[in-house]
């Protein structure tokens, strides 16, 4: 999940009877599975909530280029390098569609970028963890993209049309990303002793941060209840986390790797795995800016933006000159 | 001299490998999101072309080296890329000027290779032309846009041109490998493309309001491997590190 801890109105979900006619019609349309489009009436809270959620998702795609970019120049074969480049290019493309989807709600990409760079808006906690060996490229694809897909597949049915449509394309690409990550893990897990060690180490470091991607339990959260009523959140964080664990544990077993959780075990009664919660203190530390790479990630984005200013200004100035020349000629 | 066709394939493949690697260094830190996508796309094309050229080089050599073996297990003196390709990225302007100067040559040369007597060379050229046509379109637009943009962007682009122009000449120097390629009908003499290149450069630079340096001095030594710049060794330490640190692993 690339959006975490998204705040809603904080006022709890209204019943249909409590709503004004306009809002009631809006909610009934959502309840009936209809889509809300940019020009339709929508409550302010819905608009703000979506801007936060889509913006955070977009920022995650953009910042998410950095931990993988860290290995593009060290990819071990031409094929792996090409695949990783294609993947990072996809991530930037996802950022682009998502910013476009957010723009239909009345913000600009520049507004959102400013809020990312100032630290006002967040991106997923996962990208504040370092990528230390080549196996981390496998773990990021397998676990991080795997966790993202858990959330994004249901979002293809989200109530806001532009967001749902962006998700359809994103999900197709993400599932390729996950497969390439697992493919790297297979090579590593079946490779030399050093490669197996890298693979296990990557799983050890990325397991709990991946579980954190779904956010803390929100079964009692008013924000979450409102988002679910609006169908911009389709499942609770706990449901998605459980689904992720259930899917991933057999994959780890197939690789011959050990999930770093001594309490992990199959529960016949529930039909799910029991597992340990991640360290939520660490999660809140990362959100506050104290993750291993928060400083580097924001510095890298700010540096890119600042050093790119002359380029953006230059190209805009040229475009303005061309427009003026064209008008003068007409 | 080793087999001239092997040398020729290494020259083509090392150009795309080294430049593709340089462009990939931009991952995630471009001036604007669209440029992140375009840079990754360009790097991806170049790495794909590398697989084909170095793959062919390995076949021609016939000693069991594949494209990866050639890319990751040769040292500086065995690389055959032109010096322009290995120049550091500098700012975005320098990166795009390098790209423009290279693309302009690359497209002309590849178009000529499409009628090569060597079937695989012609096929690789045909595939590459489609990609490089787009590379040149984009690098040309960017050089014009930034050259004729603000005072600052103009100054930076002029500086990039002054810095990189001495590396242009090497792309057009003929040597015995080229002579063997001409003889076999595989590739044209690089010098035969110079006039067309200069004409193209003059047109674009005029529109970009940039001034071509008067001095035609050309650094050389990359395509022969005689003397690369210091930059290439540092690139290889990064690019080849995993392969060399774990030589018994497959990835």
Automatic annotation (TrEMBL), chain A:
EC number: 1.14.13.149
Keywords assigned: Oxidoreductase
Entries under InterPro entries matching the protein: Aromatic_CoA_ox/epox, Ferritin-like, Ferritin-like_SF, PaaA, PaaA_PaaC
Domain of life: Bacteria
Leading EC class: oxidoreductase
Entry-linked Gene3D superfamilies: 1.20.1260.10
One record GO biological process: phenylacetate catabolic process
A family per Pfam: PaaA_PaaC
Protein name: 1,2-phenylacetyl-CoA epoxidase subunit A
GO molecular function annotations of the record: phenylacetyl-CoA 1,2-epoxidase activity
Source species of the chain: Sulfitobacter sediminilitoris
Record-level GO cellular component terms: cytosol
Keyword match Metal-binding: no
